[in-house]
From TrEMBL:
It comes from Psychrilyobacter piezotolerans. PROSITE patterns: MACRO (PS51154). This is O-acetyl-ADP-ribose deacetylase. Residues 1-178 form the Macro domain. Pfam families: Macro (PF01661). CDD domains: Macro_OAADPr_deacetylase. The lineage of its organism: Bacteria, Fusobacteriati, Fusobacteriota, Fusobacteriia, Fusobacteriales. SUPFAM superfamilies: Macro domain-like. InterPro entries: Macro_dom, Macro_dom-like.
Length: 180
């Protein structure tokens, strides 16, 4: 299912299957690959992604929470993977909201730097990292909207929900109850 909202598009599905300039990975600090979407992206991309993550690890020790790094897409359909590290949810006032917002903004800034025009995001931090799905969605949309105020060259941003719950939350949030 797919819903268009100006340049933001909402879909439910597997981000690794998208033919697009860049997909964003909800990575870990060591860029090792892991479970969830991270595992799926590393499996789909293969050795090329693993090797480039290793180089980044050697160069700068991985990726800090809220920051973003880029590799090519390896065997994936996407040309690039932007790896960003979401915060683990530790409750309100732990700074997690700001870190999550930084994930979206830093990923988009990196995309612009690389002349990437189409980019897809998973629901960062809402799996193993335990961020409340509704709050994470609000932060995702507000951060993207903020970024779009002085955009820049990005032509399409796809929000990819894997499960029904997130998809429903985003649909509501984007005010699109009646459009499917
Ligand atoms: P985190 O560690 O940041 O919480 P997870 O991978 O555990 O990352 O979960 C982040 C989100 O990615 C969850 O909403 C999960 O349902 C979703 N997800 C898992 N696999 C995929 C996939 N192949 N494509 C898109 N989203 C996915």
């Amino acid at each position: 299912m797919s819903i268009k909202y100006k340049i933001i598009e909402l879909i439910q599905g597997d981000i690794t299957k998208l033919k697009i300039d860049a997909i964003v990975n909800a990575a870990n600090n060591g860029l090792f690959g892991g479970g969830g979407v991270d595992g799926a992206i590393h499996r789909g991309g293969g050795k090329e992604i693993d090797d480039q993550c290793k180089l980044i690890r050697e160069r700068q020790g991985g990726c800090k929470t809220g920051e973003a790094v880029i590799t090519t897409g390896g065997n994936l359909e996407a040309d690039y993977v932007i790896h960003t590290v979401g915060p683990v949810w530790n409750g309100e006032k732990s700074g997690a909201e700001e870190f999550l917002s930084s994930c979206y903004k830093n990923s988009l800034n990196l995309a612009v730097e690389k002349n990437i025009e189409t980019i897809a995001f998973p629901c960062i931090s809402t799996g193993v990292y335990g961020f409340p799905k509704d709050l994470a969605a609000e932060i995702a949309v507000s951060s993207i909207m903020e970024f779009l105020k002085d955009n820049t060259g990005i032509k399409k941003i796809i929000l990819v929900c894997f499960e029904d719950e997130s998809f429903k939350i985003y649909k509501k949030l984007l005010g699109l109850y009646n459009s499917n």
